[in-house]
Amino acid sequence: RRTPRAGSLVISEVRLTPILVADPPLLNTQGVHQPYTPRLIIEVVTADGVTGVGETYGDTKYLELAQPLAGKLAGHRITELNGLSALAEEVAVNAARVENSVDVGGLRGVQTADKLRLSVVSGFEVACLDAWGKTAGLPVHALLGGKVRDRVEYSAYLFYRWKEHPRAAGGQADDWGAAADPAGVVAQAERFAETYGFTSFKLKGGVFEPDQEIAAIRALAERFPGRPLRLDPNGAWSVPTSLHVATELRGVLEYLEDPTSGTARMAEVAAEAGVPLATNMCVTTFGEIREAFTKDAVQVVLSDHHYWGGLRNTRELAAVCRAFGVGLSMHSNTHLGISLAAMTHVAATVPNLDYACDSHYPWQTEDVITERLAFRDGCLDVTDTPGLGVELDPAKLAPLHQRWLDDDGTMRDRDDAAAMRVADPGWTTPRTPRW
Ligand code: GKR
Ligand code: MG
């Protein structure tokens, strides 16, 4: 009897397409989102012509690593996922890109060389899993061991925002209007709840005086009694300010996300807060886990499968969290449907996914896939379609790439402080703690 021939698992071609995606004027502690955000779309093609897709951060520092890594992949098997990290380690990281301090106001925690590499590896890992799934006729979650749930719950991601970008900045208009006070935040939450069925709410804070943000959370609690609420100022507060907010919102918040920056300060807050602390800033690599968990600095880790190095590393993180009794969920950055599909597949396989994940996706009106993913009752169904279950649409990809090509360099690297300076020329990135 002849063994049926498996589809070829060997990579014959890799295509990298940097794009700029329209983004609304969402505010955070560093400034405001630029009109366009960089993302990188990765296509891995096997010798049989099966294409797998991945998505990751697209700033120059990631492209600089993705290009040489892509050059090493011809002949590599899509199943050799562990080998991706070893290949990435052969790629030198420009020392100027590495930022080891948590006090510089970054939104993604420290930027070590390893973390930059892992953020790139994650896009290739997802593309390989997609191609492998399509070749084997299996969904990505099956390649990760199988789903333990049929739907993944997401939370509404509320932002203070302007109605539109300043005219000088360009960009695209939307009909959300401004949200600059508690009433605006509640109105935004109502629209999220009605349109997508979200039942939990995260507010991006660190924008206004803490007492105004406390008032916004109280207004949400009054409008949506008993619903899970979170507040995330991206490390903008000192320890005393964090404790003030925690005290005021004790019993109201499901968790407080990165009130202050750095593990030592988070530990000080955690000891007194009486509210669980979550992070996507002080525990962003395996190396940061030991100190944070032994000091009980965080009670919830929010994975970002991009900077944790992919879907399998996210599962390893989940196992460590389980061992230490630390909660787990996922946060997001500006992203498109490929990343959302990847998040959903891995989330479906993690038994201890303790909280609804957050997603920027509803803020993105553009995408590169044929059919956008649709939230129902605040959840995404977990697809059993082979691979990720999404298809790249070249006709949608091309104009976003053209936008990247046409850019004069100002949008290719996300810079929320630069975007703020268009409206407020004196703006500088606030040092943390800001309050
Ligand atoms: O998009 O403004 C933003 C967020 O602040 C994002 O950059 C964060 O990484 O949403 C993220 C978070 O949970 O901190
Ligand atoms: Mg966060």
From TrEMBL:
Q: Which pathway does it operate in?
A: Carbohydrate acid metabolism; D-glucarate degradation; 2,5-dioxopentanoate from D-glucarate: step 1/2
Q: Name one Pfam family in it.
A: MR_MLE_C
Q: Which cofactor does it need?
A: Mg(2+)
Query: Which CDD domains does this UniProt record tie to the protein?
Result: D-glucarate_dehydratase
- Which reaction equations make up its catalytic activity? D-glucarate = 5-dehydro-4-deoxy-D-glucarate + H2O
- Top EC category: lyase
Q: What UniProt keywords apply to this chain's record, in alphabetical order?
A: Lyase, Magnesium, Metal-binding
Q: Give the top-rank taxon of the lineage listed in the UniProt record for this protein.
A: Bacteria
What EC number(s) does this enzyme carry? 4.2.1.40
Q: What are the Mandelate racemase/muconate lactonizing enzyme C-terminal domain coordinates in residue numbering?
A: 182-276
* Gene3D superfamilies in UniProt: Enolase-like C-terminal domain, Enolase-like, N-terminal domain
The entry assigns this protein to a family as follows: Belongs to the mandelate racemase/muconate lactonizing enzyme family. GlucD subfamily.
UniProt-recorded name of the protein = glucarate dehydratase
